[in-house]
Structures are given as C-alpha cells and as structure tokens.
Hints:
By secondary structure, the chain is of the alpha/beta class. It has a single domain, classed as SGNH hydrolase (Rossmann fold). It is built from nine helices and five strands; from the N terminus they run ααβααβαβαβαβαα. A five-stranded parallel sheet has the order 2-1-3-4-5, sandwiched between helices. β3, α6 and β4 form a beta-alpha-beta unit. The radius of gyration is 17 Å and the shape is globular.
Amino acid sequence: MNLAAEGNKLMKADTVNTAVIPATKLEEDSYDWWERHEQVLKIKDEMNPEIVLVGDSITHFWGGLPAPNSQHGTGAAWDSVFEGRRVLNLGFGWDRTQNVLWRLDNGQMEGLSPEWVVINIGTNNTSGTDNARASTAEEVQSGVRAIVERVRKTAPSAQVILMAVFPREESPADPRRLLIGRMNELYTALAAELGLTFLDIGKLMLAEDGTLPREIAFDTCHLTEQGYQLWADALREVISAK
C-alpha cells in the first residue's frame, strides 16, 4: 500500500484528523515540490546545519538553502539573524502540518544535529481547497505535536522554537484571524507542556486598530522585508541569549 497516496485521499475526509496524516504535495505553487525535497536530501548532510527552519511559503521564500526560485524581501532581514550560520530552510510553499510530517518521515532531518529548530507551520491548515479541507484549531495543534515529536526523535539535543501563526487577513474580525487566534492559544499550551520556546510576534505586526498593514504582509499573508525584519529581530534575541 502506498501510504502517502492513501494519506492524500483522506485529506477530504471529515471524520479523521487529516492534519496528523502524512501527505505529499497537495497544491500547485510556483515551484516544484518534489524537486525541492530532493534538493534538501542532497545538501543537508554536507551542510550540517546549526539551525533548521521548518515551515511553509513564509519560511520558504525568505532565503537560505535550498535557494528559493523567488525571494520575498531583499534578504537583509535574513542576514541580520542568520549571516555566518549554517541554516537549512525546510520551508515548502503551500505546506500544511501533514506535508511537514511526510517530509520528516522521508529523510529531511535524518542524521542532523542542529542546535535550533524553528517551527512555523499551520496557516495553510486554515484553508479549504479541492484537495484538502480546512482543519480545526485542535486538529492543527495535534499536527504540530506530531511534528515536534518527530523533530525530537531525530534531533533530541536541538532547542525547539515554536512560532505563533502570524496574523492573516486585514480585519481583526475576519473568521480566519479568529481561527488563528484560537490556534495560537493552543500552541501556547502545547509549548508549555512540551518545554518549547514559544515566540509570538503577532502584535508587533498589527496596526493599533488590529488591522494587518500591507507594509508588513503584502497580500495579508506573506511577509515583506519589514515583516521579515520583525521575525528576524525576535529570533535573534532568543538565539543570541543562549
């Protein structure tokens, strides 16, 4: 039985938590998902990363290796926190928790001993498409728990930073924004339970009235250089303190 194929078929089912079922590529994006996976496998051991970033397009298109086919921002924010460090970027555009689980199950961190693993995942689980339904906040938390379990099994000495899901949509009353708020409540509890460093920069990204400015997220999802700088500053403070 092809478990990945079976997992993909289950993505539309409402009776199971699809966020914890490992699945391969689900959505079309501006890059080749499978090619990027192969690139990771080719470079990871030689790189011997100090830091591993795990995430979706927000991480993918920030920078680093494997090099993205396009980059959001100028790269200055990336350099401000990662310059001189060996950083493996396991961000894959359109990925959900279930895609990350498949990638971890298929060698992307095998044999690595990073000092830090930064996890920023879950925003795409809020989207329902023809290929996958949206997840509940509780389902996504379970998906993140499964990711952390795999990371710790593979790299038990790594310190894990769990990012709060960044704000999305312009209005603070948008249903997706409210869902993300609930997700972050559950992420906070999960981080406390598992002894993770929880990092929430959401308030720094918002205007006084709670709206998400396009100067921070140009499409009210993906970050501009200014948005990335907020993330970089927060990460640098944590990483430099230990």
